[in-house]
């Protein structure tokens, strides 16, 4: 099966964009994993599949698949890349784009400085919304692992996140600790694990070990989750620069039932045709 694709990246979190409005796509988990494979396929952290939306006032519907083939509800860096893709493929006249996702509609804004600003929706802390297998909601939780005690905060940005505060994030043994956290029965739907180093009230450093993809150079929803947890803990102000290994995002949240705003870049890398072995 031949697939036309566009490779894009948002501060190093990379995507294969497949436009299902222009080609017929029948992709099972094996196909998705092959596309994402960095040796046998194109290589990416997530695959973004565009579809026609039947909803009024909605420009497009898109679905998000991790490199392991799992379908997920939200992808912040991917949302910015979708906005960039659409703004260069038929929606050149629009600077405000509405996309339907599994997490609901999100609005994407092409800014004058060519960055993309996304309304990432309202964070949710209720255990049932994350999901988190605890009896009752708390400000923070604790995980006991062989390697020690790991206090964390949990929030849904449409997808599930655990946020741990750390000293120097560069020294966190993330590829050892994060998979053990992800495997814990506390997280029945899996979890994205963020390690946050607070530099000051307007600046954090962050590394994220993603559900279904492993450590990525950046995680947009993870940056939102970390800032929301930091603000909720009284440690951050309402506008924060988040430095991830792949680059910087600006995250804003006014608290309570206000939405989280994420601003950052989105770039094209190349286009191509993939011969999928089916
Ligand atoms: N791994 C995530 C999806 C991609 C999120 C990330 N790439 C972002 O920019 O938000 C999950 O399983 O929920």
Brief synopsis:
With 278 residues, the protein is α+β, with helices and mostly antiparallel strands.
How would the blueprint of this fold be written?
Elements: E1 2-10, E2 13-19, H1 29-36, E3 46-51, E4 60-66, E5 71-72, H2 76-87, E6 96-101, E7 104-110, E8 116-119, E9 141-145, E10 148-156, E11 160-165, H3 174-182, E12 192-200, E13 203-210, E14 214-216, H4 220-232, E15 239-244, E16 247-253, E17 260-264, E18 267-275
Parallel strand pairs: 2-3, 4-6, 11-12, 13-15
Antiparallel strand pairs: 1-2, 1-18, 3-4, 4-5, 6-7, 7-8, 8-17, 9-10, 10-11, 12-13, 13-14, 15-16, 16-17
The structure holds 2,6-diaminopimelic acid (API).
Bound molecules: 2,6-diaminopimelic acid
The rounded distance between the terminal residues' Cα atoms is 7 Å
Q: What number of domains?
A: 2
Oligomer category: single chain
CATH architecture of the largest domain: Roll
By DSSP, the count of extended strands is 18
Helical/strand content category: alpha+beta
Radius of gyration using CA atoms only: 18 Å
Site (Could be important to modulate the pK values of the two catalytic cysteine residues): 161, 210
EC number: 5.1.1.7
Subcellular location: Cytoplasm
Pathway: Amino-acid biosynthesis; L-lysine biosynthesis via DAP pathway; DL-2,6-diaminopimelate from LL-2,6-diaminopimelate: step 1/1
């Amino acid at each position: 099966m031949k697939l036309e694709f566009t490779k894009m990246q948002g501060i190093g979190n990379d995507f294969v964009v497949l436009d299902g409005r222009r080609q017929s796509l029948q992709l099972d988990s094996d196909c998705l994993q092959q596309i994402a494979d960095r040796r046998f396929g194109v290589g990416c952290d997530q695959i973004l599949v565009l579809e026609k939306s039947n909803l009024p006032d909605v420009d497009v519907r898109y679905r998000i698949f991790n490199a392991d083939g799992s379908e997920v509800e939200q992808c912040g860096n991917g949302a910015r890349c979708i906005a960039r893709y659409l703004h260069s493929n038929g929606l050149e006249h629009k600077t405000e784009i509405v996309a339907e996702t599994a997490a609901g509609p999100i609005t994407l804004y092409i800014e004058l400085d060519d960055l993309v600003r996304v309304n990432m929706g309202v964070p949710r802390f209720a255990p049932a919304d994350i999901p988190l297998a605890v009896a009752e909601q708390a400000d923070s939780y604790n995980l006991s692992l062989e390697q020690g005690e790991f206090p964390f905060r949990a929030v849904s940005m449409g997808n599930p996140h655990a946020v741990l505060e750390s000293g120097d994030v560069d020294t966190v043994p993330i590829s050892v600790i994060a998979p053990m956290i992800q495997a814990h029965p506390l997280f029945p739907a899996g979890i994205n694990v963020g390690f946050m180093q607070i530099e000051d009230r307007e600046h954090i450093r962050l590394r994220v070990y993603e559900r279904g993809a492993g450590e990525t150079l950046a995680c947009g929803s993870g940056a939102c989750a970390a800032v929301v947890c930091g603000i909720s803990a009284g440690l951050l102000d309402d506008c924060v620069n988040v430095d991830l290994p792949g680059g910087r995002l600006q995250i804003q949240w006014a608290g309570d039932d206000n939405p989280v705003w994420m601003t950052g870049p989105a770039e094209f890398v190349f286009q191509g045709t993939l011969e999928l072995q089916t």
